[in-house]
# Entry
Amino acid sequence: MTEDPQARLAAAEQEILARRPEHSIEPTLDRIRALTELLGDPQRAYPVIHITGTNGKTSTARMIETLLRARGLRTGLFTSPHLSSMRERICVDGQPLSAERFADAHDELVPYLDLVDAGQPVRLSFFEVLTAMAFAVFADAPVDVAVVEVGVGGTWDCTNVADGAVAVVTPISIDHTRYLGSTIPAIATDKAGIIKRGSVAVLAQQQLEAAEVLLRRVAEVGATVAREGLEFGVTSRELAIGGQLLGVRGLLGSYEELFLPLFGAYQASNAVCALAAVEAFAGASAAGGVGHDGGGAGADGESVALDDDLVRQAFSEMSSPGRLEVVRRSPLVLVDSAHNPAGMAATVEALTEAFTVSGLVAVIAISEDKDVPGILDELEPAAAQLIVTGNSSARSMAPGKLAELATGVFGPDRVTETAWLDDAIEVAVRLTDEWDAGEARGAGLPGSAAVLVTGSVVTAGDARRLLGAGAAEDPAPGPA
# Structure
């Protein structure tokens, strides 16, 4: 076996990629349970904060992890999908696994993967293998708490072999209808499966149909509920240079003048949900007699507010790569991973609020199985021109088909078809230059044009790499 870490990483990634893809779902926990049992159920070696929802899961997970780490806890973070490197999905102490540690984690699992594959009618999938790797890595570290984002849904998602002490549900909307159903109640029912007996359910603001389902689940399993807008919420929000300034009311206290270096009301909502989740976890720790620096447990064991300075520092360090991310300033180029109508609506609202743009050129590549007309409808009012293209995923809709759909929404004069994403970005930048020079349709003010690259996480990741924002550096060697 070669000792070169990058070669070993590439070999591990190829073996994982050769398995059933993560978008091909078989609704059962039998395979992952068989694997975790062989591994000694590593997901039970530490408390878990479990996160589901339709939009905002990864951002909220990253925010929770940042707050936990600020409290002096050793953290594990499992998110999906990745933007640039598969290693991003499994982080310890805020850092992706090194190439060597990722390869080691995979190699250690191979004998157990072979046993489970031989005993099941269907082989373990790409996502099941990565989930088991994350659980095992977190147990080996060991971490004080793991923040685990579901892949799809909740009840049948393979991460659900873990029982979250805190279950976070971000806003639910229509997506993944092939697996979760085509109605809000059906989707909410599947996602509600991560709420376990005795847990704390932290619920972002939901549509009424989703809220009813989630609250029914809370009652059925005897969980405690914390709802955005009732038990916690954003109390003030104003634009600031590079982000926004927030006042929030949490479960344990209120916190003022928190600078969040992210854009949009939806990110403020994600941040306050993250805060409530960490406060809920701190309260559970206090009840169990476990106290940590930074608040959570008072001298008498009762829950107390988190330290103001700690919260303020953690908020200022929160990040969400690929979510309305500025990757270039001249011209302004933003990358966003919106991949369903609700996500695109939130992106457009945040972009309109935070940036002065009179000539937006949108570059879009979308997966074939998404609600493409709905996404285009949400984007149309904001974009002066649309460049349709493809991304590096086999699921990407063919540019010709996407152009046909886009023309029906934008009209033929506003749609340009380009085969490759790099060429599409070049075309978009040229159009912004023409706009700023007063040569495009309508005369915009100098510097008022911008490019938005959007449509999927894969599109965002591809664009970040092309624009030099997505190169993943190996973390420094360490116990992770």
Remarks:
- The domain at 325-466 is CATH 3.90.190.20 (Protein-Tyrosine Phosphatase; Chain A).
- The first strand starts at residue 48 and ends at 52.
- Confidence is low (pLDDT under 50) at residues 288-294, 472-480.
